[in-house]
Design brief:
CATH topology of the largest domain: Rossmann fold
Shape: globular
CATH architecture of the largest domain: 3-Layer(aba) Sandwich
Largest sheet: 4 strands, parallel
Oligomer: single chain
Strand content: 5-15%
Order of helices and strands: HHHHHHHEHEHHEHE
Number of domains: 3
CATH superfamily of the largest domain: P-loop containing nucleotide triphosphate hydrolases
Number of strands: 4
Strand order of the largest sheet: 1-4-3-2
Number of helices: 11
Helix content: 40-55%
Structural class: alpha/beta
Distance between the termini: 55 Å
Radius of gyration: 22 Å
Length: 260
Amino acid sequence: MSKVFANRLLETNPVPTLWTTNSIEACDPAFLRRITFSAEMRPPAGCIRKRIWQPLADRHVPTEDAVAMTALAEAHDQPPALVADAMRVVRTCGGGVKTFEHVLGASAKLTNGGVAPPPRYHSEAPWDPALANTDASLSLLEARLRATTEPPRLSFCLDGPAGTGKSAWARHLARQLGLPVIEKRASDLLSMWVGGTEKAIARAFADAQAEGALLIFDEADSMLADRRNAGHQWEVSQVNEMLTWLESHPAPLRLHHQSG
């Protein structure tokens, strides 16, 4: 199909037409400019996924397993089609929740090119403030944040060795504030292409702003290196992109830096 033909098709189509795509990255900007209206369908947050999973569980699995499987929606963001397939396998082979997680994990690995996707969340343990050794009162911070009428525009930098509770407290704080969580690792953001990391950083902030989510950056030092030691221009622009968003992001943010 020639570009001229496609342009004319978009400009003169005689009936309303809907175009869908999983990603606009490969779309010609000239085509996109000729689209009358665009709507982005974002992946649903955990609470919405639970509502999507519920009728699937009611249809495919026994009642005693449906509740446990639906609770897993917070930790799994696979498409509903994969979830329904996994539930059908459970029903067919007479398995339970463990079978469901195994089948869903295998499907996620297959659709990810044979590589298991990183876990959306770390294993959760009840937050116990008595086990945290901090130089500021986390309980006082939580109380003051809960007292605000809307999520404040602030950011936290949590610094300390692995296993000291940085990520656990960040997710605990999100629950206290009633916020969904978007968690990004360095592998989610760092790109082999010049400019790719900056785009990924911008998208992370934009997604968190659109969903009103608490944004967590694990190993933030990978993206906030000292610009004075930069050997390439892209290292400077990468840090600049992060700093620009840190100054303007309207929702709570947490940076995780592991001392070492």
